[in-house]
Design goal:
The protein is α+β, with helices and mostly antiparallel strands. It is built from 14 helices and 23 strands. The strands form six sheets. Strands 12, 15, 18, 19, 22 and 23 form a six-stranded antiparallel beta sheet that branches. Strands 3-2-1-4-5 form a five-stranded parallel beta sheet. A four-stranded antiparallel beta sheet has the order 6-9-7-8, with helices on both faces. A hairpin with a 2-residue loop joins strand 20 and strand 21 (about 375-380). Helix 1 (about 15-25) runs parallel beside helix 11, helix 6 packs across helix 7 and helix 8 runs antiparallel to helix 9. The structure holds adenosine monophosphate and glycine (GLY). Adenosine monophosphate binds near residues 147, 193, 194 and 220.
Length: about 425
């Protein structure tokens, strides 16, 4: 009899719910544990939430040994940057994701800018500073807007687009002297503002070979028409029509291949490599790398994935991706994030969510900031749910997703009403 995989997923967001849901459908998977998970993973069939202190790698290792976990998948960036894959691999537990030295592609903006320069990967021109006076002097000679980035992980708040010198000086001072970002702000990158349309290009890599995911695009701004403050993402869809076959070829040749080749000399990159790119007049430039799947891009991408996710992740860990291919549902998928009013700033928690579960064909509600309290599902974070749908075309996927959204409510619920507008206006 074939032994079945027992998988542990680290994280608690919509991305992790989507990964766990997809993983649990695999014929080769017996149980999916999620640490810590959310109300959605708690209620998902074949999925079990577990309480482990995931910052304590030894506790994770002990859990894996006791539960005979055969694969760990790390969802978010922080544990990757902190070396979770290094620790688990040293304990001979198959762990999918980049080691800390490779996770620097997300964990350090200065590492990444230098890496791109060294490997001739197209990106915005930049300068880096740890000295405030030098940064202020540089800002006098810039054309505006400019983009100022704190070096390290800053939970999505370390990037500020500054419209003039005055604002630039305030942000640089904030980051370099006021210690607002702690260690993350000890160095900053000041880079040229890029115009164009953003897309997310994600591949799975075993360090030598890679397989692309279907293309996707998220909506970072909070409000309709891409207005308002930047967020972790208010919705996403796949495919992204801005990534034409010609653009995809450019991303692969100019970004993905040189990145994986360059990393192979430092620390081979195993895991999901996410290139956030700006596309302008047929040219591609890298805005950022993430060393994990995107959230909410994962949700529509997992709706479309037909292959077994555990086999792909295990093949990547074992350096055997060359023997694999991925099958996708040809239909587009679209996901709308339902957030707590006030997100990304102050918002309430603990509101009772009405209207769950939603049972419509090809519609799936992924949870993010949710918890179970007194047997009710309540909000417990800024991004609460991501309602995803597959459709014969993007318009249909959008209609189905919004029909799902409209059947769910809680006090002060907030969502954008135009997810997919860029693709649909093409
Ligand atoms: P990052 O974490 O570096 O990708 O920055 C977060 C977001 O800021 C990106 O997704 C873009 O929307 C925006 N951004 C970052 N760098 C630039 C740039 N050079 N030009 C224009 N927008 C940028
Ligand atoms: N959706 C953008 C990210 O995951 O960073």
């Amino acid at each position: 009899m074939m032994t079945k995989n027992r998988v542990l997923i680290i994280g608690s967001g919509g991305r992790e719910h989507a990964l766990a849901w997809r993983m649990a459908q695999s014929s080769t998977v017996d149980t999916v544990f999620v640490a810590p998970g959310n109300a959605g993973t708690q209620q998902e069939s074949g999925v079990e939430n577990v309480v482990i202190d995931t910052t304590d790698f030894q506790a994770v290792i002990d859990f894996c040994h006791i539960q005979q976990v055969s694969l760990v998948v790390v969802g978010p960036e922080q544990p990757l940057v902190d070396g979770m894959v290094d620790a688990l691999s040293a304990a001979e537990i198959p762990c999918f994701g980049p080691k800390a030295a490779a996770a620097r592609l997300e964990g350090s903006k200065t590492f990444t800018k230098r890496f791109m320069q060294k490997n001739a990967i197209p990106t915005a021109d930049y300068a880096e500073f740890s000295d405030l006076d030098k940064a202020l002097k540089y800002l006098q000679s810039c054309e505006y807007p400019q983009v100022i980035k704190a070096d390290g992980l800053a939970a999505g708040k370390g990037v500020v687009i500054v419209k003039d010198q005055q604002q630039g000086e305030a942000v640089a001072t904030d980051m370099l002297s006021d210690n607002k970002f702690g260690e993350a702000g000890r160095r900053i990158v000041i880079e040229e503002f890029l115009h164009g349309e953003e897309a997310s290009y994600i591949v799975i890599s075993d360090g030598k070979t890679f397989i692309p995911m279907v293309t996707s695009q998220d909506h970072k701004a909070r409000d309709d028409g891409d207005q308002g403050p930047n967020t972790g993402g208010m919705g996403a869809y796949s495919p992204a029509p801005v990534v034409t076959p010609e653009i995809e070829e450019k991303i692969i040749e100019q970004v993905i291949k040189p990145t994986l080749k360059g990393m192979a000399k430092e620390q081979p990159f195993v895991g999901f490599l996410y290139a956030g790119v700006m596309i302008n007049q047929g040219e591609v430039k890298v805005l950022e790398f993430n060393v994990r799947m995107g959230d909410p891009e994962t949700q529509p991408i997992m709706m479309r994935l037909k292959s077994d996710l555990d086999s792909l992740c295990l093949a990547a860990v074992n350096g055997e991706l060359a023997e694999h291919s991925i099958q996708w549902d040809k239909r587009p998928a679209l996901g709308v994030v339902m957030a707590a009013g006030g997100y990304p700033e102050n918002y309430a928690k603990g509101a009772v969510i009405e209207g769950l579960p939603v049972s419509q064909t090809d519609v799936k509600v992924f949870h993010a900031g949710t918890a179970v309290s007194n047997e009710q599902v309540v909000t417990s974070g800024g991004r609460v749910l991501c309602v995803c749908a597959l459709g014969d075309n993007l318009t249909e996927a959008q209609q189905k997703a919004y029909a799902g959204v409209q059947s769910i409510t809680w006090q002060d619920v907030y969502y954008r009403t135009d997810i997919g507008h860029r693709a649909l206006s093409r």
